[in-house]
Backbone:
């Protein structure tokens, strides 16, 4: 983690970001700067655009209005979404092999250590189809321990994880942000860490919708 | 970048090895169509040897089309396509790797079994090398062109029919020249011109499709 930038140096700047879906404006004029050491808890009711916001940051959803710029070109981003990106027919270790291969390479020892950290010791050679929903999510989260990334974009990382698991995850988030990483995550659960900053998307939502010509409907 | 391509190829081959049905499916379809054809038309050797080239080529095309729909769909549904697109490599490398595996699994077995099929349909034995060569040039072209359609209908529910409509017009020239080359060879005529055209179509598809399908995936 020594390569991570010092705390408080800006990593990502978001200016005037807007999102429109089905001619409904979800949020607009969103301006924030993500700094090293930040832990943002993205909140909002169902359908507020939390997932779309994270996908825009990851570069998976087109940005029609506004700008997202990486201020540090070497900053690496990991996005773990609702769909975990795991192949059911492969084992946990095989899945991690190709996922880690996207950003570099990994040794079997590194992968086993990552799986042990997410509490899946002994499941390395289990086929993912036979794991429970929580265990599958843990396999996906093991990437966070395997690939060194500066910015973590996590969409509902606590879903189907047990209470002890959530506490462990918060400890990793704490460690990552203290080391100069940044996290943006959505969750309907509260995060108990002191450094958490809340980004409530409803603050950037319009009170009434407008059509394409700007008329209030 | 090479390592990225190899990683995808290795993963997809591993997936095929875990589910061999996926690999055997197009092959079984191909053999069935060709085997049923004489039952429906006529088992007469003279008629079959005349129509063999066309039947084999159409069956090969349909077998390719059958397996194309899932080219990107499975990856899209489980979220691994997102992760592949987020990797710091251009998206055409991903298309190239996926198409290569698709051809290896659905195209190559057809070529290997084609001499047997040719014998079943009384294709003159001097035309068999031409048949194999034309399939060797033609099936990767079919896989490549199909990738554009597969990329476009990824994420569309019930995109199979749409894919067929999109891709069939592009397949027509490949079929025409592929089948005519075999017909020409069975009459003892030169096939250099057909092979040159099939090669040209392959090179064209190789140039254009990874880029086009890669852009379509990002939509």
Residues:
């Amino acid at each position: 983690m020594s390569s991570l930038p010092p705390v408080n140096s800006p990593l990502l700047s978001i200016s005037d970001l807007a999102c429109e879906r089905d001619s409904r404006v979800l949020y607009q004029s969103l301006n924030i700067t993500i700094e090293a050491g930040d832990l943002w808890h993205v909140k909002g009711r169902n359908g507020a655009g939390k997932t779309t916001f994270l996908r825009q940051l990851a570069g998976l959803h087109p940005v029609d209005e506004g700008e997202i710029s990486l201020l540090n070109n070497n900053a690496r981003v990991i996005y773990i979404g609702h769909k975990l990106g795991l192949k059911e027919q492969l084992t946990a270790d095989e899945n991690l092999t190709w996922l880690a291969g996207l950003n570099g390479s990994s040794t079997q020892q590194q992968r086993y250590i990552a799986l042990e950290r997410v509490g899946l010791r002994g499941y390395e050679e289990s086929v993912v189809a036979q794991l429970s929903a929580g265990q599958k999510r843990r396999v996906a989260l093991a990437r966070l321990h395997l690939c060194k990334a500066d910015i973590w974009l996590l969409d509902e990382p606590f879903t189907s994880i047990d209470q002890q698991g959530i506490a462990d995850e918060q400890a990793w988030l704490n460690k990552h942000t203290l080391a100069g990483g940044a996290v943006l995550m959505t969750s309907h659960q509260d995060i108990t860490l002191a450094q958490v900053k809340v980004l409530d998307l409803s603050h950037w939502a319009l009170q009434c919708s407008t059509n394409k010509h700007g008329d209030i409907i | 970048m090479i390592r990225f391509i190899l990683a995808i190829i290795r993963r997809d081959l591993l997936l095929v090895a875990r589910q061999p049905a996926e690999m055997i499916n197009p092959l079984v379809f191909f053999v069935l169509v060709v085997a049923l054809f004489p039952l429906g038309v006529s088992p007469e050797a003279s008629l079959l040897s005349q129509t063999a080239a066309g039947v084999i080529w159409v069956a090969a095309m349909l077998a390719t089309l059958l397996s194309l729909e899932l080219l990107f769909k499975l990856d899209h549904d489980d979220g691994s396509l997102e992760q592949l697109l987020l990797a710091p490599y251009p998206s055409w490398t991903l298309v190239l790797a996926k198409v290569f595996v698709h051809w290896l699994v659905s195209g190559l077995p057809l070529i290997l079994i084609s001499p047997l099929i040719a014998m079943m349909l009384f294709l003159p034995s001097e035309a068999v090398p031409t048949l194999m060569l034309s399939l060797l040039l033609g099936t990767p072209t079919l896989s490549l062109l199909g990738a554009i359609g597969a990329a476009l209908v990824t994420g569309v529910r019930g995109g199979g029919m749409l894919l067929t409509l999109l891709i069939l017009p592009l397949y027509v020239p490949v079929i025409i020249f592929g089948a005519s080359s075999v017909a020409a060879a069975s009459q003892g005529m030169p096939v250099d011109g057909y092979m040159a055209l099939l090669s040209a179509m392959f090179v064209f598809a190789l140039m254009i499709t990874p880029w086009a399908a890669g852009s379509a995936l990002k939509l």
Q: What stands out?
A: The beta strands of chain A are 10-21, 24-35, 39-43, 65-70, 77-80, 151-155, 182-186, 196-200.
